[in-house]
Amino acid sequence: MRLRLPSLSRRQMISGAVVVVLVAGLVGWAAAPKPKSFRTLDQLVTVHTGPDDSAAVTLDTTLYLPKSAGAGHPVPAILLAHGFGGTKQSVRSDAELFAEQGYAVLAWTAQGFGRSTGEIHVDSPDWEVKDAQRLVDWLAARDDIRKDGADPRVAAVGGSYGGALSLLLAAQDPRIDAIVPMITWNDLVNVFLPGGVFKKQWAGQFFGASDNPDNPQCGRFAADICRVYLNIATTGKATPAAEALLRKSSPSQVLDKIKAPTLLIQGQVDTLFPLSEGDANARGIAANGTPVRVAWFTGGHDGGTGPQSEVDRLRLLTGQWLDHYLKGNGKAPENSFTYSRVSGLNAQGRGLVTAASKTDTYPGLRGDGTSVDLRGPAQQIANPPDGNPAAISSLPIAGLSSLLGASGADVSQEIPGQHADFYSAPLPASVDATGAPVVRLRAASPTGEATLFVKLYDVPAKGAPSIPDGLIAPLHLTGLPKDIADAHPITVTLPAVVHRFEAGSRVRVTIATADTAYWSPAEPEVYSVAVDGAITLPAVAGTPIANPDVIWRYVLAGLVAAIALALLVVLLIARRRSRRIDRSIDADLVDTPLVVRGLRKEYKNFVAVSKVDFTVNRGQVVGLLGPNGAGKTTSLRVLMGLTRPTSGEILVFGHRLLPGSPVLSRVGALVEGPGFLPHLTGAQNLELYWRATGRPEADAHFEEAYDIAGLGSAVHRRVSTYSHGMKQRLAIAQAMLGLPELLVLDEPTDGLDPPQIAEMRKVLRRYATGGRAVLVSSHLLAEVEQTCTDVVVMHRGEVVAAGPVADIVGDSPTVQLDVSDVAEAEKVLRDLVGVSSVAAADGHQSSLVVNVDGTPRAEVVAALVRAGVGIDRVMPRRRLEDAFLSLVGGDTKASGERP
């Protein structure tokens, strides 16, 4: 049967052309680069700074100025500060976005970084904050900046290092009209010594961001900051003087002086500056009556910016805040609270989708919630010498996180003997935790002191346990009894999270003695720990909110309308075409897995497959062979419905193959290479794939699939950490889910090492038993010869041979002789008329491979016997490779033909 597109009338062709032109025009209009509505001015600005203004520091700046700005049309300004280790280029995209919205944006590189001079004082009010004040002076002197009297209308915006700067600047300079600090700190002492325990890895990452060949130990840090770090990193403790210096750069000391309306944005996936830091800032500023809006999002120092829906929401909130407080547009934004939760997977496989919620007022970290009982006896746990080995709760070192293909909060590993676990019963219903969980514990130590790490785990019914966002609570406890029976309960507030515990999951509280992210006591010791009663998971009664509208969505709406019109035309054509398709079933072939008849696939100026016929029966492992360009992959793509044939037909169990045909549920395939969601584990990918089929979970045979994959515990790791070979094995397991009756594999051994290839050979042979069948395409002829029962050889788009492997190999002009004297045998055979070649057999010291070229084998044997050479064995020698090369004429780079 030939399948061809129906001929189109002149009217249809004209209508289709109009639709194409309309869609192309809209796409071109949307995608065409727009002229910038702003100009930039790069300038090195020298400021006088320091405690007595005696130091001169040069700052590398860029001013983004709307083209409409001028003396007759002054515009409000934004001071845009970068994060630690960055430069003014780090915030370029945000600066351009604000400039497009009509703001003058001044971005600069903080002193101690990039081309700016000076040293790093970590947002000191005497240095970096004063630098920013001088930049406000610089803006005030420009006639194109909007002013209230002599004061410029200006906001301070920044993330992390820049976020703290905006807070400290607003406290120090009353000219600041609004601030938007993001993912930043409240108190550096609490940040780097939470619970009295030094956060060594993040501190090292923070301190290591500065490079200075002239001072390799301190980099470009100021001497006092360097001394503080080196002392704390060595002892694990901060002196009162060190704490005083850190608090000098902490907004916690000046929150009562901030009068600028504040939009606080804090990340939920942040082991450096957790939600508690933003909470402290919000409460301190609001206590003065200053307007404060709080927004949490599913990102942070460990989680990045989050999905696009999060970026849109935060941009909308920021735009509303600045438009009102700088431009005077609209009513005053509410002092509300918004947060978000991961709600599912992006339909395009591009990460996660979030759902945002809102409350009218900020509830803080503690509140009413669900009390979950915990079970488990008091337990003893060991503190290892010098804190090594240590558990892993997160990977705050960005380079290591990216190397492993995971965010810093996506990993956890406990050390046996060094932790105690306390479990809840399976949850009868899902629980949404929004805020800081609270648990009570008891501890005892022979020394009266203990450093402990308290962790909240989500233990799903299926899958690996995980620490929500990698957040843990370090504790340094003193005054402890030696016996746990004498210990008094201690209330522990865990880091705030936004996390859903699904029904059937268990809550686990783990108490560990050492963690790679933190300093630990050097002396080995054994502690006793217990958990009292329950853990409280706080909740927030938020109202769901829609994702913010952005300009490009209106463009997309127009495109969607145009595409819908085009689809209508296509559907009408497809409906007309579908009436011509033969949907009958061949009753004689309902038990035959696959029949291919007269298959042909043409492209515009190219014939990929000209004529293919073959059959795959139950119990067979059929190898599809051919040189590059022979048409193997094209045939498989047609077979799986990924492309339509030009003519011919494919029958699967007697059903003519059509896209979406129900009979495809009886077929498993690996064609086009493995494709998985990298942020999910191997097991989660397989489960998600199976759910998409709509078939019962019991029919999936997951355990058999995991066994086939042979990944062991790695099946519960994120796929982004897999090697190519591991992904290939997982893809084969996915193809075998449900134990389909026909399995189609394209290059299944790609990326596998020799032992894995040998194991795959056994898997395929076993799979074809019990009435199933396998069709496998491979370029490894030796593997096909050892694995397959039958082969189909393609060349230049046609089948040139098909049948059992033994029949294709056929009689051999070459024999292998096992002889007693190799040297003498070789001499005799070279002198024998008709023998064309003699060579040593690979891996056999006493064997020769002889091309007799038609000479009877009996004559060859007789000649050796006459010469006194003993013969142990004579056997034909011909490999599938020999047969393959004879069939394709040595052409291993076949190409398609022109139609």
List keywords for this structure.
899 residues, alpha/beta, Rossmann fold, Jelly Rolls, eleven-stranded mixed sheet, 22 helices, 27% strand, disordered N terminus
Description:
This protein is 28% helix and 27% strand. It is of the alpha/beta class and 899 residues long. It folds into six domains: 147 residues, Rossmann fold; 45 residues, no CATH class; 170 residues, Galactose-binding domain-like (Jelly Rolls); 30 residues; 199 residues, P-loop containing nucleotide triphosphate hydrolases (Rossmann fold, 3-Layer(aba) Sandwich); 67 residues, Alpha-Beta Plaits (2-Layer Sandwich), CATH 3.30.70. The strands form eight sheets. The chain has an eleven-stranded mixed beta sheet, sandwiched between helices. Helix 3 crosses helix 4 and helix 15 packs antiparallel against helix 16. The two termini are 19 Å apart. The N terminus and C terminus are likely disordered.
Secondary structure blueprint with pairings:
Layout: H1 10-31, E1 38-49, E2 55-66, E3 77-81, H2 92-100, E4 104-109, H3 128-140, E5 147-148, E6 151-152, E7 154-159, H4 161-172, E8 176-182, H5 188-192, H6 200-207, H7 223-235, H8 240-248, E9 262-267, H9 275-286, E10 292-297, H10 308-327, E11 337-345, E12 352-359, E13 369-373, E14 379-383, H11 398-403, E15 419-423, E16 431-435, E17 438-444, E18 450-459, E19 472-477, E20 490-493, E21 497-501, E22 506-512, E23 525-538, E24 543-545, H12 551-578, E25 594-603, E26 606-616, E27 621-625, H13 632-639, E28 647-652, E29 655-656, E30 667-670, H14 682-693, H15 702-709, H16 724-736, E31 742-746, H17 754-767, E32 773-777, H18 781-787, E33 790-795, E34 798-804, H19 805-809, E35 814-819, H20 822-830, E36 837-840, E37 847-851, H21 857-866, E38 871-876, H22 880-888
Parallel strand pairs: 3-4, 3-7, 7-8, 8-9, 9-10, 10-11, 27-32, 27-33, 30-31, 31-32
Antiparallel strand pairs: 1-2, 2-4, 5-6, 11-12, 12-24, 13-23, 14-23, 15-22, 16-21, 17-20, 17-23, 18-19, 18-22, 25-26, 25-28, 28-29, 33-34, 35-37, 35-38, 36-37
